[in-house]
Specification:
The chain has 319 residues and is mostly helical. The protein contains 13 helices and 4 strands.
Length: 319
């Protein structure tokens, strides 16, 4: 039965990513047709849409009032983004930090990570925490709007995503958005959350652990494809910016879903180990950028260290 649940999860991840693309393209094209500015589309439909799989998994799992997968996926996806995605990408091609990331986005990720640690230190994820997460997310969006309005230029990763949105008639855009939404709901429930819980039972591990590892890897694979492709094309700002932005959304938007819908408790080991690994990796990629004498580049050696840290994290989880 383990293979059956794994096959269903793989099918679910494929459908989830495909339907998320349909949903984002449809809503963005519809918004453009009714006169919404590219700035607003880029900062909402496109940026939040990249985390649509994690968001819908969080919503589906939170309806069960035991959001282990939702919380585990948010934390585990950040660990996978930094260890697996940045690690593999930097091994292929070293990644220099863009000035905008150094000046604005990476500091905000550090703040979001510290805020999550403070909110979770009582081992409880509650509605006040969710409100704080969304308040910080709103502040970040406000800063991005002000910055983009002054420079009349969107961040590279959003500009790149907007250029991929096809033109389509309003009726077709609406239909595509609805189809994408329907598949997102069905696949996140029946092909992700349900199989993940059954898989945890078959493996005799906590559901939270499946969320931080198997589900997190599945939802991070699209980031790996986008980041690696951007880096190979020389879009280093897009490569690192995509990961930094995705991690902020996981902390401030994805975690706020179970916080508001189904407040839950964490175990001490989940906080110390899983949040701890995420915190350490976030500090490490900041040190690669800000430490005295740092080259402001994620080198191949540093990429190897990130990947080794992620592999060690997975091994420790299951041993």
């Amino acid at each position: 039965m383990i293979w059956l649940w794994l096959i269903l999860l793989v099918a679910g991840f494929v459908l989830l990513v495909w339907s998320a693309d349909l949903f984002v393209e449809g809503t963005a094209a519809l918004a453009r047709n009714i006169g919404v500015s590219d700035l607003f589309i880029g900062l909402t439909a496109v940026s939040i849409g990249t985390s649509a799989p994690e968001i819908f998994i969080a919503i589906t799992d939170s309806f069960r009032l035991e959001p282990d997968i939702a919380i585990g996926n948010a934390i585990g996806s950040n660990v996978a983004n930094m260890g697996l995605v940045l690690g593999i990408t930097a091994l292929v091609v070293p990644l220099p930090y863009d000035k905008r990331i150094l000046r604005s986005e990476l500091p905000m990720l550090l703040i979001a990570t510290v805020l999550a640690g403070i909110c979770l230190v009582d081992l409880h994820l509650g509605r006040v925490d969710g409100i704080l997460f969304l308040a910080l997310f709103g502040f970040i969006m406000y800063r991005m709007v002000r910055s983009s309005t002054k420079t009349e230029h969107l961040p590279d990763e959003l500009e790149n995503a907007l250029s991929d949105i096809p033109s389509m008639e309003t009726g077709r855009a609406s239909f595509q958005a609805l189809i994408g939404l329907a598949i997102l709901v069905v696949s996140s429930n029946f092909l992700i959350v349900e199989p993940a819980r059954n898989l945890a039972g078959e493996l005799h591990v906590a559901v939270f652990d499946v969320g931080t590892t198997i589900v997190a890897v599945g939802t991070s694979l699209p980031e790996l494809a986008v980041t690696l492709r951007a880096a190979l094309k020389g879009g280093y700002g897009i490569a690192i910016g995509n990961i930094v932005g995705s991690n902020m959304l996981n902390l401030l938007v994805v975690l706020s879903v179970p916080a508001l819908m189904a407040p839950a408790k964490l175990s001490l080991s989940e906080y110390l180990f899983d949040y701890g690994v995420m915190f350490v990796l976030t500090v490490v990629i900041a040190l690669f950028a800000y430490a005295v004498g740092a080259k402001k580049v994620i080198t191949r050696l540093e990429g190897g260290l990130l990947l080794a840290a992620w592999i060690g994290y997975i091994l420790l989880k299951y041993t």
